[in-house]
């Protein structure tokens, strides 16, 4: 019985340590926003990148709260 517990412990530990980080998902709202700005400006601008990053950060914060 102890052997099972010991193996189970190591299996659980290696599973936890081998997990890959999960990339944040874009929301539909964020994608629509990016499309709208892209179409208005005719391409990617530094301001668009900043606004998009702010939008994703705000959505992340609202999910955590």
Automatic annotation (TrEMBL):
Its protein name is Uncharacterized protein
Organism equals Brevundimonas aurantiaca
